[in-house]
């Protein structure tokens, strides 16, 4: 007897119905791009398969390569300003033109201003800043510090 895979916390719908929907809602160029994506990217078992390919993102709007537009309520780092906010782009361009990177063995005015602002916003006596390259790295670093401070695992 063929049993379906066990349910996961994410959408892993690979049913014939989903495949039929995808075939009827995707153009040939989109299907080819999705196939190339599946060929070269490792897709985790609990992640949703790619359903489309984006051409642009602006404000709250996403547009795929077929010209379909929809509002993005998920955001992934675009929650506050939206995609491509002109003020953010201008600030990034100005900083990249002036000083694109500073290793932590040096300092610079923008880094100190950011640390001061974050320390002022933090509750209680939290006043030291450690920047992390990603959210998952920040969590790993926080756990390591918590273990070091408490002696607990």
What features would you describe in this structure?
There is one protein chain. By secondary structure, the chain is mainly alpha-helical. Among the domains are: 16-71, no CATH class; 102-150, no CATH class. 42% of the residues lie in helices and 8% in strands. The protein is built from five helices and three strands; from the N terminus they run ααβββααα. Strands 1-2-3 form a three-stranded antiparallel sheet, with no helix packed on it. A hairpin with a 2-residue loop joins strand 1 and strand 2 (61-64). The longest helix has 16 residues, at 135-150. It is extended and about 55 Å long. The model has no long low-confidence stretch (mean pLDDT 85).
